[in-house]
Design goal:
Blueprint lengths: L6 E5 L2 E11 L3 E8 L18 E9 L18 E8 L5 E10 L5 E7 L8 E9 L10 H7 L7 E9 L1 H5 L4
Length: 175
């Protein structure tokens, strides 16, 4: 995926940069975003807002159509493992983070992390998101699911985006 979407959403006076959107089987939508830095709690486990350039996010939700029986349209997909590798396209410097479950009043449940960009906010970045399914000790499958969808809830995916411009997001502030 080398297409970069430069769409800015305005929610509650908050800007979010849509880096990319992907739909995968069995009816899951991933939306990857750069969001405005924020204070995250417990603070001892998260980069302080004062040291953060971008709040990097991945939303993982059921689509609104063509989803498994029993799935709630738009519902959060738990137990997914998502990492982000942010590479400065000019210098080659990199930042790698495991995205952790978060909740707020804008996106509700999502995966995210505060990050410091590996370079200037005016540089362009290549961003790679890796998605891995939950392990079999984290998510148990019932027989009806197994018969219809198989033993894997979700495949592994890698999504690459080039030339991401975080400048507007890095300069934005929350109210």
């Amino acid at each position: 995926m080398y297409l970069i979407l430069t769409v800015f959403l305005f929610f509650s006076n908050t800007v979010e940069l849509i880096i990319g959107e992907e739909k995968v089987d069995p009816g899951i939508v991933f939306i990857f975003e750069g969001a405005v830095k924020d204070r995250i709690y417990p603070s001892s486990f998260h980069l302080p807002e004062s040291q953060t350039d971008v709040h990097i996010e991945a939303r993982a939700n059921w689509d609104n159509e063509k989803i498994p029986e029993g799935a709630v349209p738009g519902g959060f997909i738990p137990y997914v493992h998502i990492t982000a590798l942010v590479k400065n396209s000019k210098t080659g410097l990199k930042t790698f983070v495991d995205l952790k479950p978060h909740i707020n009043l804008i996106d509700n449940f999502h995966y995210a992390r505060n990050i410091a960009l590996p370079g200037s906010i005016i540089d362009l970045y290549n961003v790679q998101f890796k998605v891995s399914p939950p392990s079999n000790t984290e998510l148990a499958l019932h027989n009806d699911w197994l018969k219809k969808y198989g033993k894997n809830f979700l495949s592994k995916y890698t999504f690459d985006y080039k030339g991401v411009n975080f400048k507007e997001i890095a300069e934005a502030r929350r109210n």
